[in-house]
């Protein structure tokens, strides 16, 4: 997947990874860029800087995602790459009880971290299938492959996003459509908020570093794009001996909790 000359949609494009993707795709020679975000002025500023189009959109609302697709197809005739990048995180109110997050947190995270990908596929796929061409880049997280200490909501919805991405890749391959899942650990974005935690153990990447990894991953047509290369090893350990991996995560959890207490 070469971005040059392509029509690209990026949700969550006003800041963080999304903004870095827009800027990098522009440098790669994308022919058209649609920047969508709940932060309308932020999306407009990013789009203006690259000569793109901005849309204010809430990706938990199917009508908003449908409008993103419709606008891109009306303006440019097609979508070559749909980057479903928006995401949200919520911490467990009681770190000892993964069931403690309120239903509102579960509902919101399910909408942003899972259903937004579903809506993108539902509405962008018909045009891609008709052309036998297209690509989805879904920003997920290493938490979807491993776990996230202190956030059952984030871990669970990101695991679900991995499951949907796998199914999307299997179901669309024969129609000439590709799928990549972006799964970083800690990235210096507003979502991280400077917080210490298990996701930080291998260092915090700049959004531009993640964008570099995306361009390389798309060029290689990789299903998993892992800006933190250590994640591959962790996945192998998890699948190789699940019980040992759980024990290791228990130790990591204790270290995170003790570290947080010591920082107070």
Q: What does it look like?
A:
By secondary structure, this protein is of the alpha/beta class. The protein has one domain (7-231): NAD(P)-binding Rossmann-like Domain (Rossmann fold, 3-Layer(aba) Sandwich). Helix content is 51%, strand content 12%. The chain has eight helices and seven strands, in the order βαβαβαβαβαβαβαα. The chain has helices at residues 16-27, 40-50, 62-76, 103-131, 152-172, 207-219, 230-240, 242-263, and strands at 7-11, 32-37, 53-56, 81-84, 134-139, 177-182, 224-225. Strands 3-2-1-4-5-6-7 form a seven-stranded parallel beta sheet, sandwiched between helices. Helix 7 (230-240) crosses helix 8. The protein is globular and about 50 Å long.
Report the mean per-residue pLDDT as an integer. 94
Query: Which stretches are low in confidence, meaning pLDDT under 50 for 5 or more residues running?
Result: none
Highest-level CATH class: Alpha Beta
Shape: globular
């Amino acid at each position: 997947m070469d971005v040059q000359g392509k029509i690209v949609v990026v949700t969550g494009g006003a800041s963080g990874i999304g903004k870095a993707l827009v800027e990098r795709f522009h440098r790669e020679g994308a022919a058209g860029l649609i920047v969508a975000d709940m932060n309308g002025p932020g999306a407009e500023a990013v789009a203006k800087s690259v000569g793109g189009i901005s849309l204010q959109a809430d990706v938990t609302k199917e009508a908003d995602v449908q409008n993103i697709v419709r606008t891109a197809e009306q303006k440019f005739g097609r979508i070559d790459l749909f980057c479903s990048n928006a995401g949200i995180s919520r911490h467990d109110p009681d770190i000892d009880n993964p069931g403690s997050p309120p239903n509102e947190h579960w509902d919101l995270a399910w909408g942003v971290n899972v259903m937004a990908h579903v809506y993108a596929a539902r509405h962008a796929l018909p045009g891609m299938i008709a052309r036998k061409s297209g690509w989805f880049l879904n920003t997920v997280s290493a938490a979807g492959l491993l776990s996230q200490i202190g956030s059952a909501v984030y871990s669970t919805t990101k695991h679900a996003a991995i499951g949907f991405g796998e199914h999307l890749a299997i179901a669309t391959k024969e129609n000439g459509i590709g799928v990549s899942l972006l799964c970083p650990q800690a990235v210096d974005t507003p979502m991280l908020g400077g917080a210490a935690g298990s996701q930080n153990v291998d260092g915090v990447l700049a959004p531009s570093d993640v964008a570099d990894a995306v361009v390389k991953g798309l060029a290689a047509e990789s299903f998993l794009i892992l800006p933190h290369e250590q994640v591959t090893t962790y996945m192998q350990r998890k699948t190789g001996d699940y019980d040992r991996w759980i024990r290791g995560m228990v130790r990591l959890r204790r270290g995170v909790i003790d570290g947080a207490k010591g920082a107070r």
